[in-house]
Structure formats: structure tokens, C-alpha cells
Amino acid sequence: MSKIRDWLSFKERRLEKYEEAKREFVKAIGKPIIMIPLELPESLMFLREEFCALENDKEFIKRMQRSCVRYLKRRFASKISEQRKSKK
Questions:
Q1: How far apart are CA 18 and CA 11, in angstroms?
Q2: What secondary structure letter does DSSP report for 54?
Q3: Are 45 and 38 in contact (CB under 8 A)?
Q4: DSSP for 4-52, written as a single string
Q5: 48 Cβ neighbours under 8 A, 6+ residues apart
Q6: Chain CA centroid to CA 35, Å
Q7: 8-state DSSP, 55
Q8: Cα(66)–Cα(58) distance, integer angstroms
Q9: Residue pLDDT, tens place only, 51-80
């Protein structure tokens, strides 16, 4: 029994290390991605299934991406302006 427990914990650690290495690789090579935990407000718990379905809703993801772009442009307008000037 202890061998099985050891094997399972070893597999879990390998999977964790793989996921960590994968995140680092994507950060270094690919486009940056952030994962934001969103919690359903208590007052909307009756929409739990609908909320969970948003994770795979392409329209929702597209809207959140646009919202993120608008937020970044407002928050970092001076940096964006500097970047554009330095490119010219």
C-alpha cells in the first residue's frame, strides 16, 4: 500500500512540475496569458451553472479581452504613447 501511495505522490509532483515548466515556457516563448479567478457573488448563486459555462463561452471571452485592452490603454496611456514615439 505504501508503494502505491508513494507512486501516486510522485506522479502528482511530476504533474505539478510539468505544469509549472509549461507555464514558464509559454511566458518565455508564447503570448502572455493570465488566469484570473472570478468568484460568483452570493446574491447570484442561483446562476451557478450559467456562471460556470462562461469559462468556455467564446463571446464572453472576447468581451473580457476587449475590456482588458480598454483598461490597459486607460491605465498605461503614457507608456503606450512613449512606445509609439520611440518606434518612429
A1: 10
A2: G
A3: no
A4: HHHHHHHHHHHHHHHHHHHHHHHHHHS-----------GGGGGGHHHHH
A5: 40
A6: 2
A7: G
A8: 12
A9: 999 999 999 999 999 999 999 999 999 999
